[in-house]
Amino acid sequence: WWYHRFLRCFVPGIFLDLTFSPSGRLGFSSLLVLQDKWEQIVGQDSTLEIFQHITLMTLDTIMKCAFSHEGSVQLDRKYKSYIQAVEDLNDLVFSRVRNIFHQNDIIYRVSSNGCRANSACKLAHDHTDQVIKSRRSQLQDEEELEKLKKKRRLDFLDILLFARMENGKGLSDKDLRAEVDTFMFEGHDTTASGISWIFYALATNPEHQQRCRKEIQSLLGDGASITWNDLDKMPYTTMCIKEALRIYPPVPGVSRELSSPVTFPDGRSLPKGIHVMLSFYGLHHNPNVWQNPEVFDPSRFAPGSSRHSHSFLPFSGGARNCIGKQFAMNELKVAVALTLLRFELLPDPTRVPIPIPRIVLKSKNGIHLHLKKLQ
């Protein structure tokens, strides 16, 4: 169920862990926890695998903003088992799609991979069940209900818990878990992939990284917060983010069911009802669509530049495109801006990442960077 939900719509980091101060500035608390941790690690060893750290940070973000979680996921070891379960499911889904015998549910269930998938699913379900149970328990408290009434906006889980179907009944436990599973999974893993690869792209293109940093410094000084208005005032940084998303799309491909037959220019056709895979990674690296596609060139996204409307699809496209596209871009901007103010990103030439397609784009050998704290 979650696999088809995931492929139908890419929703990366739809909520931002942003807190408003009286001045209207924004503080990204989960990112600040990560950066503080990085400062301590850099003092011991300047090389670090960033994907796992960023994954915990993005899970921390979605837990705080969508599910009313208190505390820090990054400082609590128990969440590492959930992260591992998601990683296992990423690999297992991909391997299942490529094995014709595993398309049969009975065969798959008795296979070693099927047993691993079942175990990982159970762990993921247990995690989301606990999140729902905890929030339900909190809402039994009158003080918590009063706080909820004063909220400017309800978070995702609160909306679900108070939702009513057409028959007047609330969502069933099964329906609740399905929605929470989807947002929990898609709200952190895709964003972690996007941020990690953007950092790598900037590390391997220092001249562009420095230009971004100068732009951000001129806008924010040495501050550690951003206003909503600031997010629209970093054009070059935005161009670099988009170019990194082109080269390293967080979701390398999606599946679609054809609602009508498709006939190609060479006469071949596909019938209605079949499932097709669309490769965004292939599209973004197609020399017929992008000139010198392997070259990092942010000018492709300069204001006024022209390109086909469907040549760049990091958030899919059409009726089922990402409903959180704008939120996701804002989260990426905040992560890049505040990180470049504190660190210089440098590649590790001894461990060049090898992209591998899973549900999200990952690296076979991790993404290792040198982090140099700026004075």
Give the H and E element order.
HEEHEHHHHHHHHHEHEEEEHHEEEE
> Which stretches are poorly predicted, pLDDT < 50 over at least 5 residues?
1-27
First and last CA, distance: 49 Å
Helix content: 40-55%
Number of helices: 14
Largest sheet: 3 strands, antiparallel
Shape: globular
Radius of gyration: 21 Å
Structural class: mainly alpha
Architecture per CATH nomenclature, i.e. the level-2 architecture: Orthogonal Bundle
Mean pLDDT: 82
Summed up, the domain count is: 1
CATH level-four homologous superfamily name: Cytochrome P450
Oligomer: single chain
Number of β-strand runs: 12
Strand content: 5-15%
CATH third-tier fold name = Cytochrome p450
- Reading side by side through the largest sheet, how are the strands ordered? 1-2-4
